[in-house]
Write a structure and sequence with these properties.
This is Glutamate--cysteine ligase. The chain is mainly alpha-helical. Helix content is 56%, strand content 0%.
Length: 68
Amino acid sequence: VAAEALAIARAGLRARGRRDAEGRDEVIYLQPLEAIVAAGRTRAEDLLADYEGRWGACVRPAFTECVF
């Protein structure tokens, strides 16, 4: 379902024809979602695995590793 929704979004954004200064259309904003669909795991699932695994059930590492 997610892949189908992304295909619809991709087609719609390409049809809009809006480009940035580098000539890229708005489809570039779908890249993070496409990566999630390709991996089959959400960011939340990855964070939970880190919490239960390498972080040793401690949330503190999230404050340094999840900074944008």
